[in-house]
Amino acid sequence: MILFTIAYLAGVLTIVSPCILPVLPFVFSRAGQPFTRSILPMLLGKVVTFAGVATLAAIGGDWAVQANEAGRYAAIVVLAVFGVMLLSPQVAAIVTRPAVALGNRLARQTAAQKASVGAPLLLGVATGLLWAPCAGPILGLVLTGAALHGANVETTLLLTAYAAGAATSLALAVLAGGRVFAAMKRSLGLGERLRQVLGIAVLAGVAAIALGLDTGMLARLSYAGTANLEQSLLNRLGADTSGAATVNRAASAANGQRQTYRSSLPVEGILPPLDGAVEWLNSKPLTVEELRGKVVLVDFWTYSCINCIRTIPYVRAWAEKYRDQGLVVIGVHAPEFAFEKSIDNVRRAVQDFKIGYPVAIDNDFAIWRAFGNSYWPAHYFIDAEGRIRYHHFGEGEYEQSERVIQELLAEAAGSHRNGSDLVRPEAKGAETAPDFANLQSGEDYVGYMRAANFVSPEGVAADEPRDYTTGKPRLNQWGLAGNWTVGPEQATLNRAGGGITYRFSARDLHLVLGRGAGDREVRFQVKVDGVSPGPDHGSDVDRDGNGTVSETRLYQLVRQSGEVRERTFEIRFLDPGVEAFVFTFG
Q: What's the pLDDT score for residue 113?
């Protein structure tokens, strides 16, 4: 009974949480209407819908989440139409014309017609689908218990009590607001203006929910204000939280030992399912359920991406240093080029980079889409409760990322620790951090789909063999020499002796190369400003500029050892069949 009381009081507290703001316009749009025929059906629809959907989401798995997402989209459409109807009487007349005609027919059969509860009930159902309350300690406790014990009446009743608490505070607010609105209508004659203002507010709420502000920015504002209040309720009333502790040490612990440390990092979302990988390396397929109680770092990468390559030493070092403290690192390999879909190529890259943590091969971008990701590399940091607490896109800020790992591990353990020394991985070759101070050249693709700065005077003949000459490239321009076939992703050399010239200004020059359909290696020779590179050779060539393409990957061809300045790079291939994909610099 105590836990039901706590859940109800936590629901009441949502009225002071910014997370309630997006649904307030929907509720206040009923202000001034009869309570039993309008406000009460709407609040009942909200309570029942939220409790039902939250129960299914807690115990039903991914299908329930997808069904709820579809319901949210439908609810957004319904409430958007409702907002437009408030703004425009003409639109309202058109939308309600079928219902009015039906009502007129029913009126002839009924002596005393009463207002229908259908419209407010539909509004309540839509609101229940869209309402995303801030997940404080109490709601987290209820949902964790549901995950532990499966489907049961207690779970649904606790969620109903939580929603009923929120409905109680909303009912009081809307009753008070109704009196204010009625007074304004009587004294100022502003009924139509109030209707339009409510319409604007409803559409603003729909926009906030559609853009995710209700679970993003507003959730961050809410946490600090309501989490402490909820935690104090748990402490004062002494609810039993030992069941949740078996799933998550960051929740209240068993035997009455409460969590003594909580990170201030905001909640950005929930760890989505890791389904859809075509294969896992270094591990069996992992599930969200198996990762409960662990701090998780999800690293989206692809093996020929220079930005990803330069983050690998840090990710690898974190995986090794914090493994025994409860950190699980998962690499999600999402291919940029077609050759990166080859499982054998990825397996070889994992070995070359000495990656020992689990890697999901996400060739169909299933996990990528589940996260809503758009970047290589991208790091998502998940706490022991399965919540995304931080993210970082691109290179750099390694100290901040490691501090986040330490914070989440401390939260999972329930006690704050003095930050330990940060990793200082030894990076070699292409893994070395870029020289941003002297970097004046950017990424350039060779395939015609994304090619730029190409200066060969013949122009590109898409998917056809053509003889090319280099032209006269200026800074950050390039050209082909010899007979090449330029495809959407790469250019393929048809006859030996062809080459590529690039005018660049950076410490390092890399080129992604492959040996094409043939099995034989492709020899090449590099020159810088017309001579052998000498001390400026990259890790994949010798001082004389000689190298071999033995597999499809990124090759470091130039590393300037002295002053970094503008140079002309040339590579000539002694064998046919090579494929060139993209230039990158560092």
A: 40
